[in-house]
Amino acid sequence: TARTILRLEKPTAGSAWFKGRDIFAMSKSELRNLRREIQVIFQDPLASLNPRMTVGQIVAEPLETLMPELSLPEMRRRVSGIMERVGLSAGHVNRYPHEFSGGQCQRISVARALVLDPKVIRTEAVPKRPFQGWRYLDPKDAPRDLKEGRSGDAAALYEAHPDEHQGRPEE
């Protein structure tokens, strides 16, 4: 689903809409802008992290690709800040994915998604506990929270399967 929404894979049928636009009909330049606003956190972080890149390079890659106008010091500042926001030390930037636990690799994936300050974060699994600055939005309260402006800066789109636990995970 996520790869199709970002048009990394070609859709076979249907449509997907974002801000009144059909994602499947967007041009390459429109897709580039879309990818700044929608980011994905994959369920298997090790499969989505390049083992030949340092964590700093992995987290900075979306900035280099989608925001090349940023200076190197600004990119480094953003990478350090997001690493700390997800509970990792800024000093970890020169380490490689295999040097981290599974949970830490998941945090690296989250940092990579959040570094662009997206409007929508698509994730395959609900994190077991919120990261600093995050809170869970109960789906039944979403309309009220959105109306009252309490949803935060980004929306999270979770993919759930019928056999999985539904609702807010245990903290």
Taken as a percent bin, the fraction of beta residues is: 5-15%
Strand order of the largest sheet: 3-4-5
Number of beta-strand segments:
5
Uncertain ranges:
132-152, 164-171
How would you describe this structure to a colleague?
- The structure is a single chain.
- A three-stranded parallel β-sheet has the order 3-4-5. The protein has a two-stranded antiparallel ribbon with strand order 1-2.
- It is built from seven helices and five strands, in the order H-E-E-H-E-H-H-H-H-E-H-E.
- It is globular, with a radius of gyration of 16 Å.
- The two termini are 27 Å apart.
- With 171 residues, it is of the alpha/beta class.
Name its key features.
single chain, 171 residues, 3-stranded parallel sheet, 7 helices
Layout of strands and helices, then pairs:
Elements: H1 2-5, E1 17-18, E2 21-22, H2 28-37, E3 38-41, H3 45-48, H4 55-66, H5 72-85, H6 102-114, E4 120-123, H7 142-147, E5 155-158
Parallel strand pairs: 3-4, 4-5
Antiparallel strand pairs: 1-2
Short précis:
The protein is of the alpha/beta class and 171 residues long.
